[in-house]
Specification:
Radius of gyration: 17 Å
Mean pLDDT: 85
Structural class: alpha+beta
Largest sheet: 9 strands, antiparallel
Order of helices and strands: HEEEEEHEEHEEEEH
Keywords: Signal
Strand content: 25-35%
Distance between the termini: 21 Å
Number of helices: 4
Helix content: 25-40%
Shape: globular
Number of strands: 11
Number of domains: 1
Length: about 190
């Protein structure tokens, strides 16, 4: 529930943040990153979909018009092996511009292979804790956006536009400010 609330706050702040910086015309996993993407609900047979589509009706955050939901992305052969048959979730702002792409990899994944693949596009990681045996993570920050990958038994990867990252950081600061005033004991 806390994670969902944080996502909603990020959607809310993304509606306020400027989306123009360093986001033009790049595709990530077949999705126009930082660009408008108008989607319909998927057909009952998602394999018949010719374009990305909502698996179910997306959540719409009314104050900003931002959308959050699970999507089907066709043409798995056009993505790296690790993302060919993954679960995808998108966050769009009021103008239907893609602000965040989340990828959930099912089953055991080769963390190093995924990180190497992402590094081919985003360069050297800014933080790398992939050698941990319990929970591992790695992140990249570039003008194109921020990427974070966390792995335990499976991996989750988040691609965020610069404006989405700014919104996430603002939400974190606000949460910390509110938490300062909370009682420290029950």
């Amino acid at each position: 529930m806390i994670r969902f609330a944080a996502q909603l706050a990020a959607i809310a702040l993304a509606g306020i943040a400027n989306t123009a910086e360093a986001q033009a015309g790049k595709q990530i996993l077949g999705i126009p990153f930082g660009e408008p993407l108008r989607m319909q609900k998927c057909p009952s047979n998602t394999e018949a979909a010719k374009a990305p589509c909502w698996i179910d009706k997306p959540f719409i955050y009314k104050p900003t018009g931002g959308k959050l939901g699970s999507v089907h992305i066709p043409k798995p052969e056009s993505r790296p092996e690790w993302a060919a048959h993954a679960w995808f979730e998108l966050s769009l702002d009021r103008q239907d511009k893609v602000q965040q792409i989340k990828v959930e990899i099912f089953g055991p994944a080769d963390r190093q292979q995924i990180a190497s693949s992402i590094s081919q596009r985003f360069g050297r990681p800014t933080e790398n804790q992939l050698d941990r045996s319990d929970v591992s993570w790695v992140s990249w920050s570039t003008a194109e956006g921020r990427v974070e990958m966390r792995c335990q038994e499976k991996c989750w990867i988040e691609f965020r536009t610069p404006s989405e990252q700014l919104a996430r950081e603002a939400e974190k600061r606000e949460r910390e400010r509110v938490n300062e005033n909370r009682p420290k004991a029950p």
